[in-house]
Design a protein that fits this description.
The protein has helices at residues 10-27, 33-46, 91-104; strands spanning 51-61, 64-75, 79-85, 108-115, 118-125. It is α+β, with helices and mostly antiparallel strands. It has a five-stranded mixed sheet with strand order 1-2-3-4-5, sandwiched between helices. Strand 1 (51-61) and strand 2 form a beta hairpin. The two termini are 20 Å apart.
Length: 132
């Protein structure tokens, strides 16, 4: 049995996933991703969660910017959230979120999918960040 105290951002994760389910209930499947992100942002506000949206981050090498990203959300300055409207979770999206974690040095991301079957999500732990 896993030690429940070792789950990273357990309560915050639960709240974020709840926001995703409320957002999906409002939008349903098939709406444009930007619209779904807007509804998700409104639901984060209603839940009293602080967030930054479309956060610009870079990956650097020897002081040079190699690539840049715009994350969908960073919630409570702790959890990266990427929201997709897709039929299924894809490995490329997991790799994308891993790069976001490395760039931000956050410990956790939640990849959320609005699919025809409903909300799917995956918690992704930053393997580059030494957890304490």
């Amino acid at each position: 049995m896993a030690d429940q105290n070792k789950i990273i951002h357990k309560d915050l994760s639960y709240k974020i996933v709840g926001v995703a389910f409320r957002s999906f209930k409002a939008t349903g499947y098939g709406m444009p991703e930007k619209y779904c992100q807007g509804v998700f942002a409104a639901e984060l506000e209603k839940a009293g969660l602080h967030f930054n949206r479309e956060v610009y981050v870079t990956l650097n090498y020897e002081g040079k910017v190699i690539t840049k990203y715009f994350l969908d959300f960073i919630v409570e300055d702790s959890v990266v959230v990427e929201l997709k409207v897709r039929p299924k979770i894809g490995y490329a999206h997991i790799e994308q979120v891993m790069a976001y974690l490395k760039a931000t040095n956050k410990k956790l991301a939640i990849l959320i999918y609005f699919t025809q079957e409903g909300v799917k999500y995956r918690r992704i732990v930053n393997s580059y960040n030494k957890l304490q």
